[in-house]
Amino acid sequence: MRMILIGLLLILITPVTSAEFSRTYIDQHPLQVANVNGVDIGYRLIGESDKPKVVIIMGLGASNVVSGDNLVRGIEQAGYQLVLFDNRDTGASTRFDDWGQPLVWWQLLKLKLGLGVSAPYTLGDMSADTVALMDWLNIEDAHIIGFSMGGMIAQKMAVHHPERTKSLTLVMTTTGAKHLPPPTEEAAKLLANLASGEATQERATAFRERGFYTESMPRQMMAIFKDGDRSEAVRTIMNDTLVVHGQDDILIPPAHGVYTAEIIENSELVIFPGMGHNVPDLVLPEFLTRVIGHFSVAEMASGSR
C-alpha cells in the first residue's frame, strides 16, 4: 500500500520546469481573480488581446507560475495570448484547507475495495472551472495545454466541451487505464529519500518557491482517485490532439502517452529523448516548435470546415 501511495505522489509532484526556472516575466503580469463556478480562480493574461488564445492547465498543487517564463514567452512570441490560472485549491484560487487532509492510506484501501473515495471536489469540477473562466473572459474557444493532472482535466474538457477546445495538447499525462505500468522502483525510492528528516522541509520550501502548494496535493489526489479510468470517455475525443511524453519519464512511463494517442482518433504522438516528467531546457525549443505547429494545423483545419 505504501509503495502505491509513493508512486501516485511521484506521478504528479515533479515540476514541469527546468533547473533554469524563472517566473520573473510571468510575475510582471497582474494576478486577477474571477468568481466562477462557485469559487474564486486566480488568473493572468499574457499577450495581446486580439491574438488566438492558449489556456494552460497545470498539474497537482501547481499554481499559474509553474509553467515558467521560457515556455510562456515562447508561445506569446509565436502570436498567442495565454491564460494562466490557478486550479481550485492552489495559489490565489479558493482553498479547501477547512475540508482537512484525507487519510490517504484509508482512501486507497477504499479504492481497492471498490468503495467510494472521499474528495472535496472532482476533476469534472476543475474542468468546469476552466470553461467558466473562459466564459468570464469572453473566450469562445482556445488551444488547451494540460500538464500531468492538468492533462486529465483537459481530457474532461475535450470530452464534455469539444466546441471550446480549438486543439488539445496532453503533456506527460494518462487516461488512468489500469493496465498501464506504474512508476518505477527508482521513482518510489526517490520520494522515500526526499520524505525523510530535514529534506521534507527543504523540499516543501523549494516547491513553494516554484509555485507549488503541497498542502493541496492530497486533496487533488482524491479527485484523481475518484475519477478512475477515463479511457472510454477519452476514446470519444475528436479534437486535434498532440500527445507529448518523455522517453525517460519514470513517474508516468511513456506507455501512458502511447496508449492515449492510440485511443484518440485525431492525435499525434511525440516522445522526446532526454525528457522525464518535466520539460528540460534542451527539449524546450523542439517542444515549442511541435506545440506551436500543432496550433497552426488545428487553426487551418478549423478554417477549412
From TrEMBL:
One Pfam assignment: Abhydrolase_1
One GO molecular-function entry: triacylglycerol lipase activity
* Keywords, sorted A to Z: Hydrolase
Set out the biological process GO terms recorded for this chain's protein. glycerolipid catabolic process
- Superkingdom, natural source: Bacteria
AB hydrolase-1 domain residues? 54-207
The record's listing under Gene3D superfamilies reads:
alpha/beta hydrolase
> What is the name of this protein?
Hydrolase
